[in-house]
Amino acid sequence: EIIEFPCIKISAESCEIEEVFHQYVRPKYHPVLTSFCTDLTGITQEMVCNQPYFEEVFVNFQNWLEETGACSSKSNSIFVTSGDWDLKIMLPHQCEQLGLEIPPQMKYWIDIKQTFVTATGQYPRGIIDLMNRLELNHTGRLHSGIDDCRSIVSIVKALVSKGTHPL
User: What CDD domains does UniProt report for this protein, alphabetically (predicted)?
Assistant: First the structure.
């Protein structure tokens, strides 16, 4: 179940952060977080208990996409992920459970790990491995959605500086 919904919009030209969306989500199906979940993500029960449910957060996110111009007909925006899990598996599962439609722009994305494979021939195991191979320092907490987004931004910047243009 999705308990954090982060997204960072960057400029395709400069790779600089333009906008940030970040909201915790109150779990509906598993309302009490397990210690495993908290240990993995750093998200505590207190952080989610007074937050809106996914349906409201998802509407907020779609409104944010509209406000930032990320889903306008003139936009060439695309999501960048580390792996396919979030947009291929987790989001569709959550939306199916709730009877929500996935916006068309969320059905396509760039897997930054695959971009790295194409550019280097090396397959990174995850964000930390990617950052190590690019000689980047990891900051924040692994598996914190917003920190992972910031790491992906750093990875995109590093790839662009090395001549690979994933966007």
Answer: ERI-1_3'hExo_like (cd06133)
Domain of 157, CATH number, reads 3.30.420.10
Question: Is residue 167 included in any domain, yes or no?
Answer: no
Output the average pLDDT for the chain. 95
Pairwise CA distance, residues 122 & 111, whole Å: 14
pTM (2 decimals)? 0.94
The answer as to whether 166 is a domain residue is no
The CA-based dihedral angle spanning residues 126, 132, 136, 139, taken in that order and rounded to the nearest 10 degrees = 60
Number of domains in the chain: 1
Assess if residue 17 is contained within a domain: yes
Q: What percent of the chain has pLDDT over 70?
A: 99
Sign of the dihedral defined by the CA atoms of residues 65, 149, 106, 31, in that order: negative
Instruction: Give the range of the structural domain holding residue 113, as residue numbers without chain letter.
Output: 4-161
Rounded CA gap, 80 and 31, in Å? 29
